[in-house]
């Protein structure tokens, strides 16, 4: 219960609204940032949540009982998408339509809340129009890596200059000031320019420049080349690109470890366990899931594996309903697998406390789909990555980890190339990472990055200061 004087103090603070599109990969970093603005920087924040049909994990995160005072959650009314999407609608189109329909109430909501400014993620850019009308400044929180921001700022030019498909270009795409992108690594949303998925991507990403500033979920030492390019190169200055503020790694706070995972991990030696998880929505084909199971078993390494019902149709099948799907591993893993790996492995259906697991001393590597949050969580805990990209920009991320940062290995083949990664290849990569010299080098690099991430976040560190400077400006301008 808030007292009258506490209420009055809250209303005098700058009022910030934070608006996230659905999906844990967006909601988590924006929510953690919202909390930080309240607890570390003394602002009042309303977190606007675009609700989806059935994300139990998203609901639990936002409606936990221990929200700090000064942070309130506002659920936008659920919308009916049944006439607009079906089971085959790709993820960004579905998400963008969900946002579009939910935003029918945005103007009224913002008029009532009357925030001093709004922070949105990159797929809520319809909010620029509403906020323009209401004269509310809008900042963007760019949830993916900075090299994707550089690509996105370059995309309108690429769209004008290239006829035909980008994936058919004879050479890799040279984004100004950044590593070139091999056409096979290009993100899903730009691989077919004729479909709505591309149009939505271009729509949102070409509007990012309308922001008053762009928060980056990275830190200066992780992506120095792309950050410097965006700040300094004439190409980006001419757009003009808003000021970028690296404020990361902003990752999920440690959630309680589950009893089952904690007890099992406590029994394992340091650096000995491979953690396997494919983000909030990643799913494998039935055939690939079986190969992965066999590969793990053949590698004879310890593992903890978050398993989902396989889907032959879609690599992001669980994106909107994670934590809600029925899941019986016996029904889709190879017969006898659970029994045979009982000593070395733990299988967790659907969802696990990822950050708590990555923090555990027994974890030696992470086989990840290379969603940006998973990468940040891994690096912030000094854990190297076996990249197993599935969708969105994950192939670019996996390549960057392996080739630019030197903290990952990329599994070869896979869903996007239409091929299956075989059990022998899997067993080899897992052994190399867990036991080989290469694994040791990767772990050393990961530990170095853990140090530098933690320095960036300390009071006075580069990421902390980035946000503090802006929060102080807002306080000076908007405190009543
Ligand atoms: N996550 C988790 N438990 C799981 C799977 C995922 O806590 O079993 C969290 C993970 O910690 C991360 C987020 O879900 O914060 C996934 O975000 P990411 O950007 O890696 O991938 P996306 O889901 O957007 O593809």
Give structural notes.
There is one protein chain. With 480 residues, this protein is of the alpha/beta class. The protein has helices spanning 4-12, 24-39, 56-62, 91-102, 106-113, 127-134, 146-161, 196-205, 224-232, 234-237, 259-266, 286-299, 337-340, 354-359, 372-380, 394-405, 423-435, 437-457, 462-478, and strands spanning 15-20, 44-50, 71-76, 117-121, 138-142, 214-216, 244-246, 273-277, 302-307, 345-349, 363-368, 385-387, 408-410. Helix 2 (24-39) packs parallel to helix 3, helix 5 (106-113) packs across helix 6 (127-134) and helix 17 (423-435) crosses helix 18 (437-457). It folds into 2 domains: 4-248 and 455-478, Glycogen Phosphorylase B (Rossmann fold); 259-454, Rossmann fold (3-Layer(aba) Sandwich), CATH 3.40.50.2000. The mean pLDDT is 92. The chain has a 7-stranded parallel β-sheet with strand order 3-2-1-4-5-6-7, sandwiched between helices. A 6-stranded parallel β-sheet has the order 10-9-8-11-12-13, with helices on both faces. The protein is 42% helix and 13% strand. Helix 16 (394-405) links the parallel strand 12 and strand 13 (408-410). Uridine-5'-diphosphate (UDP) is lined by residues 23-25, 28, 252, 277, 279-281, 306, 351-352, 354-355, 371-374, 377.
